[in-house]
Design brief:
By secondary structure, the chain is α+β, with helices and mostly antiparallel strands. The strands form two sheets. Strands 1, 2, 4, 5, 6, 9 and 10 form a seven-stranded mixed beta sheet that branches. It has a five-stranded mixed beta sheet with strand order 3-12-11-7-8, with no helix packed on it. β7 and β8 form a beta hairpin. The protein starts with 9 loop residues before the first helix and ends with a strand. The N terminus is likely disordered. The structure holds 2-oxoadipic acid (OOG) and magnesium ion (MG).
Length: about 260
């Protein structure tokens, strides 16, 4: 599809990115053809893209925050937090992930919240914590649909569901009163060797700030965070490229570990 007309055609843009994802093909950035695409337009493209997934039978299970840490902002040269939507088909449950049909996937270390009660802006960090049923460690697999996975602008990455591809949740699930998530050591290993390490405080200075920011970003669009949402708070470190045959594990102090084996 050639994206050369103006004004922007939101559903067509969503189909363009969705087809790239399903075909495992990288495509030109939307802003190459539509340099004036705003963040708000881009969230509409994201929403339309999610609708395409829902029509194929996927269900929304939560949200992911992105660009919440300095390491990630520097890696992507983009400087404000954004969100994307998670569906049930994006969850890897058996610890095995195949690169077949993927474009240029990367993996990164995260903290995940399961939010039991609906949350609306404005809210405090304490209110956000009190709504959580459990907290765990998580790995997020990103697979930007854009050429080279780089130098895109904020509207491009928002429209592309914040580059999200898949996620894996840890099995250790602690209640909010059982763990203080403010400063937990996080080590991501590739085949037993440390690949990236950092602290959970790199995530928005406190992972709960990411949850609050998500509720605020949704609120600014007239939305609420539904009860029963999984929320990925954002990566603590830069992402690393996935290699066939490798095993990536994340160990988070108190929160246990989570791993995924990568096949061709
Ligand atoms: C954007 C998504 C960033 C995170 O955790 O910071 C993200 C990207 O890096 O392509 O998921
Ligand atoms: Mg992430």
């Amino acid at each position: 599809m050639i994206l050369s007309q103006n004004p922007p055609m939101i559903p067509q843009m969503a189909e363009y990115l969705d087809a790239a994802m399903r075909g495992g093909r990288e495509v030109d950035r939307l802003t190459t053809s539509f340099p004036d695409l705003s963040n708000d337009d881009a969230y509409q493209v994201q929403e339309e893209g999610v609708l395409l997934r829902l029509k194929r039978g996927e269900k929304i299970v939560g949200f992911k925050m992105g660009l919440t840490s300095k390491a990630k902002r520097e890696q992507m040269s983009l400087h404000s937090p954004i969100y994307g939507v998670l569906t049930d088909h994006m969850e890897v449950r058996d610890g095995a992930f195949s690169l077949t049909g993927k474009i240029h996937p990367k993996i990164e270390p995260e903290i995940a919240f399961f939010v039991e009660r609906e949350l609306k802006a404005p809210l405090t960090r304490e209110e956000a914590l009190a709504a959580c049923g459990w907290i765990t460690c998580a790995l997020e697999i990103l697979d930007s649909r854009y050429l080279g996975f780089k130098y895109f602008s904020l509207p491009d990455v928002i429209a592309d569901n914040a580059s999200s591809s898949h996620f894996i949740l840890g099995k250790t699930r602690l209640r909010p009163d059982q763990v203080d998530v403010s400063d937990l050591e996080m080590v991501m290993e590739e085949d037993g060797q440390a690949a990236q390490s950092g602290s959970s405080k790199e995530i928005s200075e406190h992972p709960l700030n990411s949850l609050v920011q998500l509720v605020e970003l949704l609120g600014a669009r007239g939305l609420i965070l539904p009860a029963g949402s999984i929320v990925l708070a954002g990566a603590a470190t830069a992402a690393i490229p996935l290699k066939a045959g490798s095993k990536v594990s994340l160990k988070v102090a108190t929160l246990g570990d989570v791993s995924v084996s990568i096949s061709p």
